[in-house]
Design goal:
Number of helices: 2
Distance between the termini: 11 Å
Shape: elongated
Strand content: under 5%
Largest sheet: none
Order of helices and strands: HH
Length: 75
């Protein structure tokens, strides 16, 4: 399978954005949770998604500036 570098960068950026947007929505929904336990679980998931979004953005930035370069293997 051939993966174009621009596709990889776009996918990383999109995943980062989507994770951050979902985390923000979960934070809003967490305020409406009927129990404290459910609110805590929602906040925990939102926190993990926000961390993932930041990590994906760092990877995107490193690849976009060529600080991180993927080298394909030949089979």
């Amino acid at each position: 399978m051939n993966i174009e570098p621009s596709d990889l960068l776009r996918t990383l950026r999109s995943a980062s954005f989507n994770d951050e947007a979902a985390a923000e929505l979960l934070l809003e929904l967490g305020r409406l949770a009927p129990t404290a336990d459910l609110a805590y679980r929602i906040l925990d998931v939102a926190s993990h998604m926000s961390c993932d979004a930041k990590a994906l953005e760092r990877i995107y930035q490193a690849m976009a500036t060529q600080q991180l370069v993927l080298v394909p293997t030949r089979r």
